[in-house]
């Protein structure tokens, strides 16, 4: 009996850095931008390559776990995650850091299904298994929510590379404990991996995101963006056709034909887009515009972290009492209203008002996420529960990656359109300063103090305006989706759930 909980402790220890690394770089973004001389597009790739690669790799890695056993999968994933952490900590430029983060994602995609399979295998009693899964879910949501705070604390005393180095002792301990205490399992050597399909999906996703991010650059023409977008879309269509024809598809596309399941997936993606995109936006504004340190920025965002990590039980209770349709619609609508309030609030002089809106955002977005899970799982036949769970995991990771890309796109376009730079800058300096506030900081650092201050003043004003545009746009989209959810989750199908 005691060994079960020891194994759970090892599983949780392995899962902690995976969850934290999804958001730990949010408060480090400004420091990364300056230290690596990264462009606005490179900065977004550094942050969201982790979620995007994981979204495509987690399903075949789950199949690999069935083939070799979750113990071997967790050991292999931990080794890759550790190597990726080392490479990221000492990356000399943005390109190598992006590659290291992609390697981290591969390791994380192995650890994630290994932890779930480990709980399933270790706990035979349904009650104990539910408790273990509840602990696992709390660690996942809490780790992601508090990732920025962890990053802020580490960067108060060390450079940005230490954010990755803290993974090394955890990985070493996981390897030692797993090797010593986690039992071997039976495995199915005939299990198909679908690895080529996973690579196809990852390439299609990255191609789509690359097209979105290329549109952020003021000197990129529409035809150049389309040249990247069209092949990615064609590859994605080809992937879907393969899934529909395959006797053992990586993703059960047929599930998307169910209106409630499709609505749940859209809600999951949208909720993650809102939460992750907002955290990154806030981290940049608080540091670049208001001059806060990474730790101060993380502490300022603490209300949304606490609200999102602690409101899971409330969301479950509301779904049980009020029904999925009402709760899901309310979650999306209140998230939209939160963004409207934040768009009109003064972050410098109305802190308590801002924190109140953050708390509402954290609660409502979490309610929407739990409603998405409920919608997906309640509408899925029992024999396809595993496939639905895999789709849900992909939706969360994809939403996290897209949140950074989409918020970044709207922010960059709005910023470039309104910035009024001082006279006397070279053409290259003007182009860089108008691309992102991070690049404006780099330009200002190379100018004499007077002109540098003028560049930063212009960049700060443009960023503050763009921040309001992004949040107002998110408000409109979420309110529109709330209306869609209300009609999609019909009373006949959902009120009883």
TrEMBL record:
One Pfam family here: MFS_1
Keywords: Cell membrane, Membrane, Transmembrane, Transmembrane helix, Transport
Recorded topology in the membrane: Multi-pass membrane protein
SUPFAM superfamilies reported in the protein's UniProt record: MFS general substrate transporter (SSF103473)
Origin superkingdom: Bacteria
One CC-aspect GO term: plasma membrane
Domain Major facilitator superfamily (MFS) profile: 7-492
Transmembrane portions of the chain: 43-61, 73-92, 98-119, 131-151, 157-177, 198-216, 222-240, 260-283, 295-315, 327-345, 357-377, 398-421, 469-489
Record's subcellular location: Cell membrane
Gene3D superfamilies: MFS general substrate transporter like domains (1.20.1250.20), Multidrug resistance protein D (1.20.1720.10)
GO molecular function, one term: transmembrane transporter activity
Protein known as: SmvA family efflux MFS transporter
Organism field: Jejubacter calystegiae
Lineage of source species: Bacteria, Pseudomonadati, Pseudomonadota, Gammaproteobacteria, Enterobacterales
């Amino acid at each position: 009996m005691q060994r079960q909980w020891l194994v759970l402790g090892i599983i949780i220890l392995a899962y902690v850095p995976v969850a934290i690394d999804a958001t730990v770089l949010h408060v480090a973004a400004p420091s990364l931008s300056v230290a690596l001389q990264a462009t606005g597009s490179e900065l977004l790739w550094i942050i969201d390559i982790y979620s995007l690669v994981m979204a495509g790799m987690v399903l075949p890695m789950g199949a690999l776990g069935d083939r070799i056993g979750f113990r071997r999968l967790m050991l292999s994933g931990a080794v890759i995650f550790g190597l990726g952490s080392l490479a990221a900590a000492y990356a000399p430029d943005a390109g190598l850091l992006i590659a290291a983060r992609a390697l981290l994602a591969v390791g994380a995609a192995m650890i994630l299904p290994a932890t779930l399979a480990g709980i399933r295998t270790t706990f035979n009693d349904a009650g104990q298994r539910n408790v273990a899964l509840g602990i696992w879910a709390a660690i996942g949501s809490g780790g992601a929510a508090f990732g920025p705070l962890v990053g802020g604390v580490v960067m108060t005393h060390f450079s940005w590379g230490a954010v990755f180095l803290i993974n090394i002792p955890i990985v070493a301990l996981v390897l030692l404990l797993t090797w010593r205490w986690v039992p071997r399992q039976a495995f199915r050597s005939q299990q198909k991996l679908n690895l080529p399909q996973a690579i196809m999906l990852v390439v299609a996703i990255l191609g789509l995101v690359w097209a979105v991010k290329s549109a952020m650059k003021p000197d990129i023409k529409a035809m150049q963006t389309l040249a990247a977008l069209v092949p990615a879309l064609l590859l994605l269509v080809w992937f879907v056709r393969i899934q529909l024809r395959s006797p053992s598809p990586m993703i059960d596309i047929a599930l998307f034909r169910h209106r409630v399941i499709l609505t749940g997936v859209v809600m999951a993606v949208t909720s993650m887009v809102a939460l992750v995109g907002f955290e990154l936006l806030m981290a940049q504004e608080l540091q670049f515009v208001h001059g806060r340190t990474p730790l101060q920025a993380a502490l300022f965002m603490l209300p949304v972290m606490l609200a999102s990590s602690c409101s899971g039980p409330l969301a479950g209770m509301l779904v049980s009492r009020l029904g999925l349709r009402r709760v899901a619609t309310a979650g999306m609508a209140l998230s939209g209203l939160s963004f409207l309030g934040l768009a009109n609030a003064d972050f410098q002089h109305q802190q308590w008002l801002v924190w109140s809106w953050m708390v509402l955002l954290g609660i409502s977005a979490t309610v929407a996420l739990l409603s998405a899970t409920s919608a997906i799982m309640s509408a899925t036949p029992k024999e396809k529960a595993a496939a639905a769970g895999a789709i849900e995991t992909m939706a969360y990771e994809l939403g996290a990656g897209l949140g950074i890309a989409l918020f970044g796109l709207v922010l960059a376009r709005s910023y470039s359109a309104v910035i009024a730079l001082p006279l006397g800058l070279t053409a290259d300096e003007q182009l860089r300063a108008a691309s992102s506030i991070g690049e404006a900081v780099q330009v200002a650092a190379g100018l004499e103090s007077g002109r540098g201050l003028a560049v930063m003043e212009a960049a700060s004003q443009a960023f503050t305006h763009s921040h309001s545009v992004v949040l107002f746009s998110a408000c409109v989209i979420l309110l529109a989706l709330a209306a869609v959810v209300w009609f999609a989750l019909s009373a006949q199908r959902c009120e009883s759930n």
